[in-house]
Amino acid sequence: GKVERAKSGRIPQGTGKGCYGYTYNATTGMRELNSMQAPIVQRIFELFYSGTSCHGIAEELNREGLQALGGGRWHPLTVRRILDNDTYTGRTVYRRTQVQFTRDPHSGKKRRQVQFRDESEWIEIHGATPPIVTSDIYAKAQAILNDPYRRLARKPSGVYRLRGHIRCLSCGTPMVGHALAKGRYRYYRCRRTYSGYAQGSCDSRYISVETLEQTVLCELARVLSEPRVLLSEARRLNGDDGEAVRKTELQRKLNAVEAEQRRLARLYTAGMLPDDILEGESRRLSAQRQRLENERQVLEAKGPNMIDLERLERELPEALTRLRQWVLLATEDDMALILEALQVQIRASNDQVFIEGVIPTSIQSKQDKSVQDFVTIERTWASPRGCNLRSPRA
What we know:
Layout: H1 2-7, E1 22-25, E2 30-33, H2 38-49, H3 54-63, H4 76-83, E3 93-94, E4 97-103, E5 110-116, E6 123-124, H5 135-145, H6 148-154, E7 166-168, E8 175-180, E9 185-190, E10 207-208, H7 209-224, H8 227-238, H9 243-269, H10 275-301, H11 309-328, H12 332-341, E11 345-348, E12 353-364, E13 371-382
Parallel strand pairs: 7-11
Antiparallel strand pairs: 1-2, 3-6, 4-5, 8-9, 9-10, 11-12, 12-13
């Protein structure tokens, strides 16, 4: 039915938020220009063609109090999506994309994915959308967006190995890499250290990349090379002392993660959270929730003599010594592996670092030869000036 509707010159779908700059006419099945929004679309293309960045355009529209399609703030990604949309040239294509649902192997939930169809399946509906910009202006905008030199300029000027694992200690916002003097000096900074951030600014100081990364490696190596940490946890798991208390604590943490996920959903629905931050926060919370679920399952499935303590005490010191040497000399790929394997999450300021992670260990049971896992959590306060490192330049 939708295919026949498209072939008859009418847009099949007239639900949802729609397309910014237009109003859908359910009677005719076509779009009509929105007198308030269409001029803003024209202005976006003109500003971009004249040299204003997507971030600069979003900032200007927000300063003037203009609202995006959902009624929220403008973000650079929102602006780019408008510049990428050839609908504004008057083109309407049905069956360009299709939605597929896949199962997330970690959470078991369905994941929605949008994929492009082969062009032979597209159905173009002529005359269903009035143009807002000319094809020439759209082509020029595309040329700027796809300019290889522009893409190169957007690439990081250096390697920031802690990205995705580090948050500001002051406000909890993810930290990003920042370079000065053409990459000569590199720092981590809070996303909110610039005034245009949607949720207000943060006055936290920059942290030297070299100092912070070496501090994190030193702390991880120290924890991983100390056998008593794992041995103590193994003995605790083999006994029943405090098991009920630990289960209660795990449930409390799970409830807190679920509450945070609901808060993110509310902020995103209200248009107060950019897509990129939502994605990063969702990944972090999902990983944290999975870790807590795994630990709870270990506690619930625990039986007598779960871990061979004699074997663990005999073999662990040598293994951890080798592991410490590898951590201290970690390459970029090695560090990425370490951070993922230990599920490291870092909160940092210019003079203090909080590192949280897990240490998974697989032990083979003598009785059933099955592999049993246990996890220990280590929280460490450290100074970024630890490990005999140089203090930050600024």
